[in-house]
Description:
The complex is a heterodimer. Chain A is 21% helix and 18% strand. Chain A has helices at residues 23-31, 34-42, 55-65, 82-91, 155-161, 214-225, 287-292, 346-353, 406-411, 414-426, and strands at residues 79-81, 117-121, 124-126, 145-148, 151-154, 178-180, 183-185, 205-207, 210-212, 228-229, 236-237, 242-244, 247-249, 268-270, 283-285, 309-312, 315-318, 337-339, 342-344, 368-371, 374-377, 396-399, 402-405. In chain A, the strands form 11 sheets. In chain A, strands 1-2-3 form a 3-stranded antiparallel β-sheet. Chain A has a two-stranded antiparallel ribbon with strand order 4-5. In chain A, strand 4 (145-148) and strand 5 form a beta hairpin. Chain A is rod-shaped, with a radius of gyration of 48 Å. Chain B is of the alpha/beta class. Chain B has a single domain (25-238), classed as Leucine-rich repeat, LRR (right-handed beta-alpha superhelix). Chain B contains 5 helices and 9 strands. Chain B is elongated. Chain A binds chain B through residues 333-335, 346, 359, 361, 373, 384-388, 400-402, 407-408, 411-416, 419, 423, 426-427, and chain B through 38, 40, 42-43, 63, 65, 67-68, 86, 88, 90-91, 108-109, 111, 113-114, 131, 134, 136-137, 156, 159, 161-162, 180, 182, 184-185, 199-200, 202-203, 205, 207-208, 220, 222, 227-229, 233-234, 284-286. Residues 249-254 of chain A line the site of one zinc ion.
Amino acid sequence: MARNSDTLPFPTSISIQSLDHSKLYNRRAQSRENLVEKEITNDSNSNQSTFVYDYEELAEWKGFDKPPKLPPRNFKNAYCDTNDLKKQTTNKTGVTGMSLDDMFCSRCREGFEPHEKIVNSRGELWHPQCFVCAQCFRPFPEGIFYEFEGRKYCEHDFHVLFAPCCGKCGEFVIGRVIKAMNANWHPGCFRCEECSGELAETGFMKCQGRALCHTCNARIKAGALGKHICHQCHGIIDDKPLRFRGEVYHPYHFNCTACGIELNADAREVRSRPGFAANEMNELYCLRCHDKMGIPICGACRRPIEERVVTALGKHWHVEHFVCAKCEKPFLGHRHYEKKGLAYCETHYHQLFGNLCFVCNQVIAGDVFTALNKAWCVHHFACAFCDQKMNQKTKFFEFDLKPACKKCYEKFPQELKRRMRRMYDLNPKKIPA
Amino acid sequence: MTVCARAMNQTPVSCIPNSRMSKAKKVIDEARENQNPELDLADKGISTFEEMPGLLNMLQITRLTLSHNKLQVVPPGLANLINLEILNLFNNHITELPISLSQMPKLRILNVGMNRLDSLPRGFGAFPVLEVLDLTYNNLSEENLPGNFFMMETLRALYLADNDFEYLPPEIGQLKNLQILVLRENDLIELPKEIGELTRLRELHIQGNRLTVLPPEIGNLDLVSNKAVFRMEFNPWVTPIGDQLQVGISHVIDYIRSETYRYLYNRHLSAKGPPPPIENDKSKKISRAR
Ligand SMILES: [Zn+2]
Ligand SMILES: [Zn+2]
Ligand SMILES: [Zn+2]
Ligand SMILES: [Zn+2]
Ligand SMILES: [Zn+2]
Ligand SMILES: [Zn+2]
Ligand SMILES: [Zn+2]
Ligand SMILES: [Zn+2]
């Protein structure tokens, strides 16, 4: 336990205080959103200080509090005799021409007898009987002394005169001192009066004359007021709490899963896996979005559909979000074509997949027969009435836009053929022969 | 000899039942041998299914064409052909269909046109995958459609031309996949506004009816693109529609989409006069033959 005499053994200005004394804290608190401001204003009418810190802030604060580390010094070397000193001053300190006549005791200002013991401390010399504690005039036990304002003290008197006593254990505090609650503390002795957790690193809250960690402070305060503590920030929930996944919170820590708005206490917890006891999948929705949950959710934007709903591909869509998979233009009520779970506009469907055969209703891969507002694959281009295969050279008659081979047409009853001719005469260009 | 007698009121055919039977039998035997899934028995003078022994056991066939024969009765056992996708019974003498047909699991195209159907069996609309239903040239009307007729949501084409409809049930709007609707030469007095819900419709034939106005909802449909056909001639249209029709279908559509027309249409409905007289003479239709 050696202490250097030329530096104060502990920094005098270190104290741990409520954070509202911290300039850094105040600067940050001001720049922060209403979240912090709200908590501060809530407490402004009481002398209990509430604070919020983050780790960055804490690190700066700790750095400031660290006492400087000092190299140990062997004080026993301070004792030597005049001959040794001569040798020392000549050889080691480089002081030349020094004689016994020039040397005198720093305390009594008398000279030294030859062979008399001399105490040398950093170039100052004493009679051994003069090298004593400025308070008790006794030699320093084991040569250990403390220096303050040019005077040297034994350890005991130095502590009595200058070192603080711990407010808890009553022992001297050497090294890091925690100044808080108008007293000094060993870091390990400054503890929460509720849970006995150390406060030196985490900061504390003053609550009716007691130093408490913020968790206990909030709990006690909430308990006294009959209020909940937020599971996230441990602050008191002054207004209505939000219950979520079995805990209570300030609602403003959350945003609506659907619309992203900051939530209030009206928010609803939605069980996303109905029937499951586990709640870790539950999600929060603002009341507005929750009310819309009964109505369909758009398959594209995942938001509720308030206006017209398009139902296609097994999903619901906003009219403007139901779009061609190729050109992404909305169908807006126009015909669309479905293929492998995707929807296409007519142009792109045919561009990508070609025509559908009227008979097999499959996309036509090879040659296409196109006639009568329809298309056929090679395999299925046939008379609609006798199923005889036809080719591009086969003559056929049109009957309600179905192809009739000549043989079939001839079998049609006379009265029908007469009527067909009447139609044909009216609009001959529409009927291919 | 009954077969021969019945054949007499049609085009003259050979009166040798044995050779005719062997004609159908030959086709069936060949198909069975070749494992041919498509069976062509059109115009074979067949009067009953008994002339086609073993047919109902040919479970592999996917298409059965029996057009231009003289079948009167379709046996319920035809539904045994569980792989059948296309059944063509066009131009026979069929007066009723067995309800079992509507249970056929793969039947996609059913042509019963030009027969003598006066009604359809109860529950007929139960077809699971029917896409094209051709009932052209029969004796059907809204009075004799089964209750579930418009439940056939898979239908993409419905042919009802040359029948006796005066009104089309509003349930037509349920056929969401319908692309083709043919109502040519019925006795239709009006169309339900629900036709406007058939958003995929690209062929609408309503010529030769007793229509005077169109529901404005038809304006919702895309019937004037180059992929669409709308036929509406030979109806006693109100003058403004008739005038637009003179210049072209697209003018009619533009007109019925206008506010002016909506006003006229509502006034027309409230001042409901007697329906126009029936003009189609159906006495010579062969579907009327008994
Ligand atoms: Zn002392
Ligand atoms: Zn202590
Ligand atoms: Zn909170
Ligand atoms: Zn919150
Ligand atoms: Zn959307
Ligand atoms: Zn597109
Ligand atoms: Zn095909
Ligand atoms: Zn033919």
